[in-house]
Design brief:
The chain is mainly alpha-helical. The protein has eight helices and three strands; from the N terminus they run αααβααβαβαα.
């Protein structure tokens, strides 16, 4: 999902943006993949993760807990502002799980110092490809703008 987002295109004089997509990685592996980023001590980290865990019939509550734990440990270890990016809505059998997961993440973030980035402006019927899991040429720019807005907005949804 993130391969279409080019960090260098989002960077400016004040912000160096690095996008690190990891294909088919689950939360347990992300705990290790995030370590090099933590060591760089960036000002902000956006975690966009979790869909692969839902594919394995995992319950949204379990996945939400794992993602939130990852965000909390990343924040503590890095000292960075951390934002959890909602799972992009799709259509099909996973959609109810995605809605539940995003709802739980929103609540967790609201009750903590972790930011939450919603993607409610993405319409699965218009912005997803035929599989319903990935964004199409109309959805990718919306996701990019959502990330840009989150980086530029210091009043994240808390």
């Amino acid at each position: 999902l993130l391969r279409s987002i080019k960090g260098w295109k989002l960077s400016d004089d004040k912000n160096l943006v690095v996008v690190k997509p990891f294909r088919e990685v689950k939360t347990e592996a992300m705990k290790w993949h995030v370590k090099p980023t933590i060591q760089m001590k960036p000002d902000n980290i956006i975690i966009h993760h979790g869909t692969n865990n839902l594919h394995e019939e995992a319950e949204p509550q379990v996945v939400a807990n794992d993602i939130f734990e990852l965000a909390q440990s990343t924040k503590i270890e890095s000292g960075s502002n951390v934002i959890i990016s909602a799972i992009v809505p799709g259509y099909g059998k996973l959609n109810e799980k995605v809605r539940t997961l995003n709802h739980l993440l929103r609540i967790y973030c609201k009750n903590s110092d972790i930011g939450f980035l919603s993607h409610e402006n993405i319409n699965p019927k218009k912005h997803c490809n035929n599989s319903g899991l990935h964004l199409n040429y109309l959805g990718n720019p919306i996701l990019t703008v959502n990330f840009l807005n989150a980086m530029n907005d210091l009043d994240w949804e808390h």
